[in-house]
């Protein structure tokens, strides 16, 4: 059995570029950067950055192109694919390795009005029935980004 699975959390390095295929389906291409902090042999703190090309199709491509901009965080799941083609200038074969998006989630915003933190002051007025039957209960304590294991 073979497995081709990629899971990344990083920031967009450029705005998504939305294109239409001849079939009419939408495709979005964008890049994300991931970083790793580590200590070298001398104990100095180092940071390593990797850049990844992402391609998305269909409705996911439209949503990403509409809501995501350079610098915004995103969580992506997908598979690695390497494409090859003959260069137009006759210099030989060209290759591009990219991640084909299967699932994604918007990353947490840092500041601004896009933070969707639950508030406790949105209580229904007395005597009125809550419209939601789900009864979502939010935790009292705030979740810290450093507590997330990835």
Considering the chains and any ligands shown, give keywords for the structure.
mainly beta, OB fold (Dihydrolipoamide Acetyltransferase, E2P), 5-stranded mixed barrel
Give me the secondary-structure topology:
Elements: E1 6-12, E2 17-20, E3 26-39, E4 45-57, H1 58-67, E5 73-86, E6 93-106
Parallel strand pairs: 4-6
Antiparallel strand pairs: 1-3, 1-5, 2-3, 3-4, 5-6
Task: Write structural notes for this entry.
The chain has 150 residues and is mostly beta strands. The chain has a domain at 1-37 and 45-109: OB fold (Dihydrolipoamide Acetyltransferase, E2P), CATH 2.40.50.140. 7% of the residues lie in helices and 44% in strands. The radius of gyration is 21 Å and the shape is globular. The model is unreliable at 112-133 (pLDDT under 50).
Structural class: mainly beta
Largest sheet: 5 strands, mixed, barrel
**C-alpha geometry:** globular
Average of per-residue pLDDT values:
81
> Which CATH architecture of one domain?
Beta Barrel
The number of helices is 1
Q: Output the CATH homologous superfamily of one domain.
A: Nucleic acid-binding proteins
Give the CATH class of one domain. Mainly Beta
* Low-pLDDT residue intervals, each spanning 5 or more residues: 112-133
SSE run:
EEEEHEE
Radius of gyration: 21 Å
CATH topology of one domain: OB fold (Dihydrolipoamide Acetyltransferase, E2P)
> How much strand?
35-45%
Terminal residue distance: 26 Å
Question: Can you give the helix content as a percent range?
Answer: under 10%
Main-sheet strand order equals 1-3-4-6-5
- Count of extended strands: 6
